From TrEMBL:
The keyword Transferase applies. It comes from Streptomyces tubbatahanensis. Residues 410-475 are annotated as: Disordered. It is found in: Cell membrane. Its main location: membrane. Residues 466-475 have a biased composition (Low complexity). Coiled coil: none annotated. It comes from the Bacteria. This is Glycosyltransferase 87 family protein. Belongs to the glycosyltransferase 87 family. Signal peptide: none annotated. It is a multi-pass membrane protein. The keyword Electron transport does not apply. Keywords: Cell membrane, Membrane, Transferase, Transmembrane, Transmembrane helix.
Amino acid sequence: MPGTPGTQRRGVVAPSVVWVATRAVLLAFVCKVFTVPGGMDITSDVSVIYHGWFEQLSTGAFPSQDVTWQYPPAAALVILSPGLLAGLLDYASAFFVLACAADAAVLALLLYTVRHRNPRDARADPASPRHRAGVWAWVAGVPLLGPTAYARYDLMVTALAVAALLAAARHPRMCGMLAGLGAMVKVWPVLLLLGTRRGRTTRTVWLTALATAVVLAAGFAATMPGSLDFLAGQRGRGTEVESVGSLALHAARYFSDWDGQVLLRYGSMEFVGSGVWLVTDAAMVVTGACFGWLLLWRLRARTWAPDTLAQASLAAVLVFVVTSRVLSPQYLIWLVGLAAVCLTLRTGRQALPAWLVLAATGLTQLEFPVWFTDVVTSEGPGLLVLAVRNALLVAAAVLACARLWRTTVTGPRKDRHGGRDDGEGQDDGGADRDGTDGARGGALPGMRGPDGVPPLSPGTGPGPAAPSHTPATGR
C-alpha cells in the first residue's frame, strides 16, 4: 500500500537531514574552515578564474582572449549570478551559496517526483529504501565528489538537466526549453534530446530546445561581442591526464622512458610529447563511432517506455565522458544527477550502471584532489585509483548502452492481447506501431498526454482490458 502520511514524512525528513549535514561540511571545506586533503586549493577556479570572467563579462564583452573560456554564451548567466548577492557576500562565497541552492533544487525535484507517484501504485511508498534510491543517490553522490562539486559551475547545469528529464512526461515543451538552456550553458545537456520518443514528442521537445538556443545565441550575439568565439576553443585541446585515453600515456611513462610531460594548458593538466596526438585523435575517432552507435540505436529502437529518455540520457553522457579527451572531476556531477533520475523513475534497467557511477564518484575524490600529484607524475596510489575509476566508468557506459539496446531494440515484448509481439505492435511505454506517441499503459504516475488528458492505465477505459506487464530487461 502507498505510504501513510507518517512514512511519507520520514521519506522526506531522513534524506533532508543527511543532505543538510553533508552540505554543511562541503561549505566548510570550500569556505576554508577545513583544509582539503592533499592541501590543494580547489577554490581558485572560482576566486581567480570565475571572478576574472565576472569582471570581464560585467563590461559587456566575453573573455575571448582567455584560453580557459571555452563555454557557450549562456554560461555568462551563471558566472554573473553571484553579483546578485553583491554587498552581502564576496564573489566566491556567493558562488558557493548559489551552488548549494542548485544542489537543494535537485533534491527538491527528486523528492517531489517520489511523493507524487500514482497513489494507486502499491509500490509507491516514499519511505521504502528502494523507492528513495534516486534521492539517496543524489544525497550521497555530491559529497562523494567532495568540495570540488561546489567549486565548479556544473551543479547549476546538472540542475537544469535533471529538471528537463523530470518535466518531460507532463511538459515536453518545458523539457525542451530546459535542455536548450542547459546546452547553451555547457553543451552536454543537448545529449538529452537523443532519448525523446519519436513522433510528436520529439518534434515538440527538439523544436522548443532549438528555439531556446537560437533566441539565446541571437540575444548574446547582438549585445555582447565574442559570444560565439567558444566554438573554436576546443580545437587545440590535447589529452587531459584524467581521461580514459590518458591511461595509455601514463603506462608509457611508467613502464618505459617515454619523454612526455604534463603541462597546464587550456585550464587543465594535459600531456605533451611525442605520440600524444595519436591518443588524442584516437579519442575523437572513438567518440564519433560511439555517437554513430547512439544514432543507430535511435533509428532501430522499437520500444519507447516512459523511462527511455532517462536511460538514453545516462548512456549518452557516459559515452561522452569515457571517450572525451578531457575528463574533469566535475563531470561526475552530471552522471550522478542522471543516475539519480534513473533510480527515482525506478529505471531498474540502469540500476547497476547508476551504482557504478556512484562508486566512480567516490574514487574521483581520491584522485583529485587527494592524490592528484601522483596522477600528474604517473605514479603512486593516485594512478591506481585513476585506472580503477576509469575502468568503472567504461563498465558503466558499456552496461548502460547494452541494456538500452536490449530493452528498446531486441527485448521481447507482448502485444495488447498478452502474446509475444514481433516489434510492430504496442509496447508498455505507449509507443505506437510507427514509433510515434501513444497514451496507453506504462506511463509514469501523474503523466499527462500532450492535450493534458491523463493516459489510460492498462485495464481501464473503453475496450478490452490489456494485461499489465513490465518490458523485459534481459536481466
